[in-house]
């Protein structure tokens, strides 16, 4: 195989030559690529080298937000490590990086293996962290019952006397809050965050901003929109101060929803525009789908039905592109509501039916109940009382969101 063939268009012939002569050091990604091209394990090229520096490199990549590179680094290191506990530590880092990349299904396996190893070797503190990332992966995969079970198990260990860092305890309580909010249990979500509030005093700006954002979300879900606006504005200011513009954009979108709920469409429009600019700049299609749905609902509230339909359809397209199921279901409901406002009831019935099917599959249950009630009202108005009765019966068997 020539140097050009080995490079295969991804690297240059000169780079391969420099590696061969020892004039350049390969990145973990390059090492994996070359090893794969030569049908050899990466360990073949590492020999007896001390891999501690590579582990440090992987941890630094994770800490600096270079998550794709961190995944490459951790995966390469797992092929060179035989120690069971060291492998579990690498698997925890790998699970975190995969969760950050929104790849929950890929994160579940390494997180599960790490948790099992740490439990078997009595590494209780490490087990809590691995369990946290396992619960987070299950939450991202919308397996909320499994996520809740794991988080309650970890919280029970703490309450039985296991001492963990306040930062870890806050993570668990915040995660438990998000799971309860997803299921429509907003009072339980607020309770978890109020428990965490006492631990938030010593946090840096970025972590305090994240906590306040979670608190704003919980307040909003529990019907305290004024509290959500107050906490959301504090969170937004702290994220801006910490130059965390991606997180600030997500908070801006959530704040836009809160201002929409209290009828301040001017402020809602300003905030959602800020969120969209940032997500477009970062090419974050997942969050952009959520923002486009927010814009659709603002247009709908302002009486701009055509604009609402346009933004809802764009949100659906973006959500399908990257499999953002929450944005897909939310935007489908918005599109159905826009069809009602446009005076197209037959189209709205079709759209509501599609939205309900998505919600039945992906949840949460509280949103299903709300949309079923709207759907029932629509079909009753068209004279189909039998279907309306059936939909209402189904709605009454589910919790209702605030």
The helix-and-strand class reads mainly alpha
Rg on CA atoms, Å: 24 Å
| Percent of residues in beta strands | under 5%
CATH homologous superfamily grouping of one domain: Tetratricopeptide repeat domain
Helix-strand sequence: HHHHHHHHHHHHHHHHHHHHHH
CATH class of one domain: Mainly Alpha
Number of helices: 22
Tell how many strands the DSSP assignment holds.
0
Helix residue percentage: over 70%
Give the low-confidence spans: none
Whole-number average pLDDT?
A: 87
Query: End-to-end span in angstroms?
Result: 65 Å
CATH topology of one domain: Serine Threonine Protein Phosphatase 5, Tetratricopeptide repeat
Shape: globular
Largest sheet: none
Q: Under the CATH scheme, which architecture of one domain would be assigned?
A: Alpha Horseshoe
Describe the protein in words:
This protein is mainly α and 402 residues long. Among the domains are: 119 residues, Serine Threonine Protein Phosphatase 5, Tetratricopeptide repeat (Alpha Horseshoe); 119 residues, Alpha Horseshoe (Serine Threonine Protein Phosphatase 5, Tetratricopeptide repeat). The mean pLDDT is 87. Helix 9 packs antiparallel against helix 10, helix 15 packs antiparallel against helix 16 and helix 18 packs antiparallel against helix 19. Helix content is 79%, strand content 0%.
């Amino acid at each position: 195989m020539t140097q050009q063939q080995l490079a295969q268009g991804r690297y240059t012939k000169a780079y391969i030559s420099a590696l061969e002569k020892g004039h350049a050091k390969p990145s973990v990604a390059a090492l994996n690529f070359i090893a794969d091209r030569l049908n050899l394990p990466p360990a073949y090229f590492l020999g007896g080298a001390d891999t501690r520096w590579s582990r440090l490199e992987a941890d630094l990549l994770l800490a600096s937000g270079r998550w794709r590179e961190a995944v490459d680094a951790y995966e390469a290191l797992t092929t060179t490590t035989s120690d069971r506990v060291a492998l579990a530590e690498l698997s925890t880092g790998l699970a975190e990086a995969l969760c950050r990349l929104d790849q929950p299904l890929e994160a579940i396996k390494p997180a599960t293996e790490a948790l099992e190893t740490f439990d078997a070797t009595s590494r209780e503190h490490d087990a809590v962290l691995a369990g946290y990332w396992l619960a987070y992966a299950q939450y991202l995969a919308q397996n909320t019952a499994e996520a809740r079970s794991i988080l309650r198990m970890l919280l029970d260990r703490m309450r039985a006397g296991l001492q963990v860092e306040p930062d870890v305890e806050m993570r668990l309580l915040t995660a438990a809050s998000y799971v309860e909010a997803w299921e429509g249990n907003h009072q339980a979500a607020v309770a978890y965050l109020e428990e965490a509030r006492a631990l938030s005093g010593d946090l840096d700006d970025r972590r305090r901003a994240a906590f306040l954002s979670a608190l704003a979300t919980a307040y909003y879900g529990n019907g305290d929109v004024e509290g959500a606006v107050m906490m959301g504005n504090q969170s937004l200011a702290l994220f801006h101060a910490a130059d965390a513009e991606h997180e600030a954009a997500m908070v801006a979108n959530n704040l836009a929803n809160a201002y929409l709920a209290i009828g301040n469409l001017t402020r809602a429009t300003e905030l959602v525009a800020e969120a969209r600019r940032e997500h477009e700049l970062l090419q974050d299609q997942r969050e952009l789908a959520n923002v486009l749905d927010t814009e659709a609902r603002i247009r709908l509230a302002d009486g701009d039905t055509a604009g609402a339909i346009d933004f809802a359809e764009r949100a659906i397209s973006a959500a399908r592109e990257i499999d953002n199921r929450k944005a897909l279901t939310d935007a489908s409901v918005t599109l159905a509501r826009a069809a009602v406002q446009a005076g197209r009831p037959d189209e709205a019935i079709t759209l509501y039916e599609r939205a309900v099917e998505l919600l039945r599959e992906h949840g949460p249950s509280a949103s299903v109940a709300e949309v079923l009630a709207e759907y029932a009202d629509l079909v009753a108005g068209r004279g189909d009382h039998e279907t309306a009765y059936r939909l209402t019966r189904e709605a009454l068997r589910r919790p209702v969101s605030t």
